[in-house]
């Protein structure tokens, strides 16, 4: 909301409505109930009905927020990264090298504080104990990779159907994210996720030469018949 006072516009962030707060609370309750039940009973032994009952909501309410057990496992803290990655990359200056844009945006997507880190650690631990969850996790990593491919292709003018650079740079981004996340999880969150990721990204892109700029178009050559005609007039 914008307020005008003495010709000065002041922007005040509107607080979430009661309805929005209620929706957020319900979503968080479902996620917390699911994580608790997954840890106590196991992923396969926990049903959607169990999660809804533990969160004190109807089953149909569960499906308003999540399409499956896998979706509630990863939650916004993970899946939201794909949409945020697209938005943040699109906002980078077009004069910035794509590799620098990607490095900066990956830092911006770091987990926000101990609460998010704890959620991710719990989810990664469950995923390692439940191989059936890995396919959804890999889908998310691949979705991030495709966002980067699209971004690099747009900024360089290269076609990923024929040119390697967008694919290689996006692959380095996805691999560095996944590798650093696994090492960070194995350390119980004690290591720096950002340091691990930056180290991996630097190693993977060290030999990746940036694409050559497109050639500057020169003057259009005149047809040979025109050149011969001019030559004939000059000699006459």
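-> sequence recovered:
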């Amino acid at each position: 909301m914008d307020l005008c006072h003495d010709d000065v516009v002041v922007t005040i962030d509107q607080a979430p409505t009661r309805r929005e707060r209620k929706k957020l609370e319900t979503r968080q309750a479902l996620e917390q109930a699911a994580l608790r039940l997954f840890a106590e009973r196991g992923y396969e032994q926990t049903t959607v009905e169990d999660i809804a009952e533990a969160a004190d909501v109807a089953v149909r309410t569960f499906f308003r927020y999540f399409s499956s057990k896998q979706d509630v496992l990863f939650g916004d803290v993970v899946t939201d990264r794909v949409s945020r990655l697209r938005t943040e990359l699109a906002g980078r200056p077009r004069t910035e090298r794509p590799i620098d844009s990607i490095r900066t945006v990956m830092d911006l997507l770091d987990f926000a504080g101990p609460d998010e880190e704890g959620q991710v650690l719990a989810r990664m631990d469950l995923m390692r104990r439940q191989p059936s969850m890995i396919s959804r996790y890999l889908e998310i990593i691949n979705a991030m990779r495709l966002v980067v491919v699209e971004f690099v292709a747009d900024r360089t003018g290269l076609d990923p159907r024929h040119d390697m650079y967008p694919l290689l740079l996006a692959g380095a981004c996805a691999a560095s994210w996944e590798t650093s996340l696994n090492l960070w999880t194995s350390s119980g969150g004690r290591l720096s996720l950002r340091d691990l990721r930056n180290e991996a990204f630097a190693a993977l892109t060290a030999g990746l030469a940036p694409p050559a700029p497109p050639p500057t178009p020169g003057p259009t050559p005149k047809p040979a018949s025109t050149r011969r005609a001019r030559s004939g007039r000059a000699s006459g």
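The chain is about 65% helix and 5% strand.
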